[in-house]
Specification:
Blueprint lengths: L11 H23 L4 H23 L9 H22 L2 H22 L4
Helix pairs in contact: 1-2, 1-3, 1-4, 2-3, 3-4
Length: about 120
């Protein structure tokens, strides 16, 4: 079984990426909740942030995305998506949390992507 085989068991890096994706979803919810404004405005912001992430990830970045980006472009897009999430987290909450989130998620995502699809 190869790493591209859809029935292959996920390895530790793939599980790490999944956890990073869940952490990004949680960070986006946190950002939407803690920013000042009315309750309705915060709920709308949270929903919009989640929808944008899910659409972008599901359409172009997920392993089984229908229009998956080329390896280099996909890696850059993943780096940008997680960097935006880390920036929002740092802006809405403790800066240290955003920095830790950025370092950990980027390391896991880049390592997994390079293992799965070498850049050519």
């Amino acid at each position: 079984m190869t790493s591209e085989d859809p029935v292959a068991a996920p390895g530790p890096l793939e599980i790490g990426v999944f956890v990073a994706e869940l952490a990004l979803l949680a960070a986006l919810v946190y950002v939407g909740i803690v920013l000042p404004g009315s309750l309705a405005g915060r709920i709308v912001l949270t929903v919009v942030l989640l929808i944008v992430f899910v659409v972008v990830w599901g359409r172009w970045l997920a392993p089984r995305a229908p229009r998956r980006l080329a390896p280099r472009v996909g890696l850059v897009a993943k780096i940008v998506v997680f960097a935006i999430g880390a920036g929002l987290l740092a802006w809405a909450g403790p800066v240290v949390a955003g920095i830790v989130f950025l370092v950990v998620t980027e390391a896991v995502v880049v390592a997994a992507e390079l293992r799965r699809r070498p850049l050519r």
